[in-house]
Structures are given as structure tokens and as C-alpha cells.
Amino acid sequence: MNAPPTIALFPEASFGAALNCVGIAQELRKRGARPVFICHPGFVGVFAEYGFTEYHLTRQVAPDGQTTEARWTDFVTTHLPHFNLSPRDQLTTYVGPTWDAIVDTAIEVEDSLRSVLAQIRPNAVLLDNVIMFPAIAESGVPWVRVVSCAETEIPDARVPPYLSGLDPQDGAACDAFRAEYSRATSAAHKRYNDFRRTCGLRPLPDAVFLENSADLNLLLAPSVVRYDRQDPLPADRFTYLEGCVRTESPYDLPFFPNDAGPLVYTSFGSLGALDTELIQRLLEAFGDYPARFLVNVGGFLETYDRVPDNVHLGDWFPQPSVVAQCDLFIHHGGNNSFCEALFHGVPSLVMPYCWDGHDNAQSTVQAQLGLWMNRSDWSAKELHSALDALLSDKLLHDRLRNISADMKKRPGTQVAADAVMALLIRGTTPALKTGAVSAPY
């Protein structure tokens, strides 16, 4: 190639996917490529902060005058009580409605996405999402599926159902969950398949919203928690990533009046920041514990007027730089947070809300990487006991240091960038419209 290849990265409207893609884009840029970002309106400026060109999808406004991002915030706020339910009970109360909203978004942005792709004219597209956009399948260039949410997105007989948080050995519970997942998503799935047909794409099997790429698939699934599949994924099209941690600006610790004790970082992502009631409970419990706490509260700094001296709040942290300095990470089980903790050898206390949080909470306990605690059903005494256990477990810390050292030998960002560049060299597999499709549950 004479000119640098242009690679368009299109993450879903979540910080997990967005920042996962930033890490890959940083490495692509080092290899002489020109990575650019297609972004939803609510993420304008996020990628520019890292020095990348952005192409913006048209802001959608509902008949009531609300923008898409405002509707999504209202949607999540309305569903906060459902995060106290079990993963199976969430299927009808949260997961089904969420798939409806995701399908709405895919339909709404289709025309704008086609226009943006025509403007960029990329050599390849990286899609970090849970749903296929027909504009990408019909772009005429190689596309890469990035699975940054959970390995369970790609089913297998030895892999627990997506979003279930179940042990793969619990066959009866897994079968029941799969059946209920299919029922809960059936209306959204039918509507999505109807949309695909109008765009000239083949329909997908039951409960599947995104096919595997015939070109390249990148899975953010460190080996310590990777599933032993009954049907291994073909190595020529599927590349596992040990961790996809972006390069961030350094972080200088703030002043604490009593500058002593272990350092604990707490972040529940952009979704969890909406749960101000839970965070206020945590702040009160943190105040009685001999440690220093950094707490990400998103855009709700003004909400908290009772902050203990051993707690520092922020609306944004350069998370990888913070986690690298911490002794413990309390998070929601989002795959980026989960993998960043592993990459830096830090134990996790997972308080899952929904989606991949349940799967990673289960993996945390099964692989002995930390603890899993219900997000609402706990007392300050129980929380303090969990902190004691995790902070004092020397064997756990030694094991995590070894896992971290192994992950850093082959950083996922570099592996991903090498795989994408190799794809550009060898060219694309034809028949994008009829390419490989994920097996149904």
C-alpha cells in the first residue's frame, strides 16, 4: 500500500467498547495505519482526546424532542431497580427491552452510517458491538468483529449462556436460561431480521444478532478465564486477546489527610454511575475502613455532600493508570475493567449489575481472582470482611502478579493490531452477505 491504510473503528455507545478500541487504534497508528472513529453523538470528543479523527453519526431526535442519548439515560434510570434481580429474572425486565433499544439504534443510524462510510472509504472496519449494521456488511471491505464484552457472546456446548452468570457445568440451569433468553429476545430478533431482509442481508438464527466475521474476529478473553470449547474456534479467523489495555496519561494520587493504608479504586462504569444511592452507601462504609478510596462517580459529583476524608471522588479517571497503582479494584464486572485488573495483577471485588457483569463475576470466583458480592444485599460489616479477605490474601496477590506478567508478554492491543494489519495484506474473504454465522444457542 502506498498510502497509509484507513481503518474505521465503530464501537457501540459504551465506554467499555470505546476505550477498548482506543487501545487497538493506538497500536494501529504505531504500525503506520490511519485509524479513525465512527462515533455516536453522545461520544463526540472522546476519541479526539486521544488524537484520532472522528466521524459523527447524525443525532437522532424522537418525536417528543429527546435525543437518543437522553432516551438511553432515561431507559437505564427507569431500569435501575431491575439490577437487583437475578440474571434470569432480568431477561424479561431488562435484557429484552435493551435488545429492543439496540435494534432501534441500528435502524436509526443505518442511513447516516452508510453516508459516513462513503465519506471515509476505509480499507477495513472494526465493529465492537453486539449487533450487525447492514451498512458495514455491505461496505465492500473486510470487517472485523471485536468481542470486547464477553466470550459467552459466541456460544458453545461448554460455554455458559450469554449474560447468565452460570457455571457451565450446571446443564439444567443453562438450558432453562437459553430457553428464556430466546423467549425474551424473540420480538426484537424478529424485528431485526425483518430489517436485515430489507437491506439485502440474510436473517440470523434464533437469539443471534451479530454474525461472526468471515475475515477476522478478536476476542477479549484472557487465558486464565478462557473456556475450553467443545468446538474450538478456527485459529485462522479467531484471535484471542490477553488484555486490551490502552495507553493512558499518568495519574498522580490526590492528597489524603491520613495518607496511609491500601489504595482501593471503585468504578461501575457510565451505567453504574447513575446508581447514586448505591455509591452513597459505599462512601459511608468506606469512611469506617482503614484504606484510601478513589471513586468514579461520573457526572454526579454534585450529588455527594457527605464524603469521608479517606475518599476522593472524580468524574473521570485514566483508569489503567489508576488500576496499576491500586491494591484492589471494586467494579461492576464490565469486561474492560475485569481485564484491566488482571493485566495489572489487582484482585477484583465484583458487584455486577447486568450484561457481561454476571459472566465476569462468575469467572472471578471460579478462577479465584477475587470475590463476587451482590450489589444491593450487603452490610458495611460484610463489605469490610470482603475487603479484609482480598487485601490480606498474599497467595492471591502472588498469583495475580504471575498472571499479569504472562499477559504483559503479549499485550492484546499489539496482537489485535498485528492481526488487522495481516488481514489487510492478505485481503478479504468474499461473500460478506453469506459469510459465517454464529451458531444459535
Order of helices and strands: EHEEHHEHEHEEEHHEEHEHEHEHHH
Assembly type of the shown chains?
Answer: single chain
Q: State the helix count.
A: 13
| Overall 3D shape | globular
Task: Let me know the number of strands.
Answer: 13
What is the CATH superfamily label of the largest domain? Glycogen Phosphorylase B
Keywords:
441 residues, alpha/beta, Rossmann fold, 2 domains, 7-stranded parallel β-sheet, 6-stranded parallel β-sheet, globular, disordered C terminus
Task: Explain what this protein looks like in three dimensions.
By secondary structure, the chain is an alpha/beta fold. It folds into 2 domains: 262 residues, 3-Layer(aba) Sandwich (Rossmann fold), CATH 3.40.50; 147 residues, Rossmann fold (3-Layer(aba) Sandwich). The chain is 40% helix and 13% strand. It contains 13 helices and 13 strands. It has a 7-stranded parallel β-sheet with strand order 3-2-1-4-5-6-7, with helices on both faces. A 6-stranded parallel β-sheet has the order 10-9-8-11-12-13, sandwiched between helices. Helix 3 runs parallel beside helix 5 and helix 7 crosses helix 11. 45% of the residues are buried.
